[in-house]
Specification:
By secondary structure, this protein is an alpha/beta fold. A 3-stranded parallel beta sheet has the order 5-6-7. Strands 1-2 form a two-stranded antiparallel ribbon. A two-stranded parallel ribbon has the order 3-4. Helix 3 links the parallel strand 3 and strand 4. Helix 2 packs antiparallel against helix 6 and helix 3 packs across helix 6. 27% of the residues are buried. The chain binds iron/sulfur cluster.
Length: 179
């Protein structure tokens, strides 16, 4: 026996900002939205830390913040990572290696600058050997302030990055920046 479906229920009016959903199991969307949905739910970040902010990064991957729930898992190789979280002080010597790792990551890729040291040199900004911000060598999508930022702050930043990815346009339309 087949249950009758009220046409008014099968095709409800789309809520503002939402695409119509067919209750028979069909979702209407665009290629952009589908690609962005898959990408924002499978962000693999490079296993990379250079100083104490790295401890907070490790904690963010731990059971309390648990960014795995967003599909975010650490990868040991830049070739399978689409996110670099720069966690820690970057010396000029390390900046060169960081740029190399970034170049080895496939497009599209993102960079989160985590903490004062990565943002601007932080406590060590006056040191002869410390880079005054990772954005001097690679493009940065998101800056997280603090020394160190807590796992909650990093989690919030990663959620903002997901929102940015959600709005990107690849197959037509204008790219929209993060809000
Ligand atoms: S911002 Fe603070 S906690 Fe992070 S690496 Fe620099 S000194 Fe360490």
């Amino acid at each position: 026996m087949t249950a009758e479906i009220d046409p008014a229920i099968r095709r409800p009016a789309a809520a503002p900002g939402r695409r119509p959903v067919d209750h028979a199991g069909i979702v209407l969307t665009t290629v952009d939205d589908f690609v962005n949905w898959t990408r924002k739910n499978s962000l693999w970040y490079l296993l990379f830390a250079t100083a104490c902010c790295g401890i907070e990064l490790m904690q963010t991957g731990g059971p309390r913040a648990d960014v795995d729930r967003f599909g975010m898992i650490p990868r040991s190789t830049p070739r399978q990572a689409d996110l670099m979280i720069v966690a820690g002080t970057i010396t000029y010597k390390m900046a060169e290696r960081t740029k190399l790792l970034y170049d080895q990551m496939p497009e599209p890729k993102y960079v989160v600058s985590m903490g004062s040291c990565a943002n601007c040199g932080g406590l060590f900004a006056h040191s002869y050997s410390v880079l005054k911000g990772i954005d001097q060598v690679i493009p940065v999508d998101l800056y997280i302030p603090g020394c160190p930022p807590r796992p909650e702050a990093l989690t919030e930043g990663l959620l903002m990055l997901r929102r940015k990815i959600e709005r990107e346009r690849w197959f037509g339309g204008r790219a929209v920046s993060a809000g």
